[in-house]
Amino acid sequence: MYVPTQDGLLDTWALNFSALLTAAPATYGCTSGEAIAVASVQVTFHAAYLAAINPITRTEGSVAAKDVAKAAMLTVIRPLAVRIKLATGVTDQA
């Protein structure tokens, strides 16, 4: 499992990561609290990303807000993604 660096790919990947983790956190060796934390930062990043790519709302401020939200999301998601990847109890199908 890797975390994409391009914003568009990251947005799609994070949505899927959050959805899977929220649906069954124990499957991935996580807690519901961790799933909630991922969902929270993913929703914040997604909203900021949409504002940053929309020509009507794209400003220096909206791009900066997206970058801040991205950094916050990666701080939460990266350690979990690595932990899930290394977990022996998580199947390849999961």
Summarize the structure.
With 94 residues, the protein is mainly alpha-helical. The protein contains 3 helices and no strands. The mean pLDDT is 92.
Describe this structure in words.
By secondary structure, the protein is mostly helical. The chain is built from 3 helices and no strands. The longest helix has 27 residues. The mean pLDDT is 92.
Topology:
Elements: H1 7-23, H2 32-53, H3 60-86
Helix pairs in contact: 1-2, 2-3
Going by helix content, strand content and strand pairing, the class is mainly alpha
Strand content: under 5%
Number of strands: 0
Oligomer: single chain
How far the N terminus sits from the C terminus, by CA atoms, comes to 11 Å
Q: How many strands, which pairing sense, and closed or not: the largest β-sheet?
A: none
User: Regions with pLDDT < 50 over 5+ consecutive residues?
Assistant: none
Please, what is the average pLDDT? 92
Number of helical elements: 3
- Name the shape in a single word: elongated
Assign a percent range to the helix content. Answer: over 70%
Order of helix and strand elements from N to C terminus:
HHH
Task: Tell me the Rg in angstroms.
Answer: 14 Å
Features:
94 residues, 0% strand, 70% helix, mainly alpha
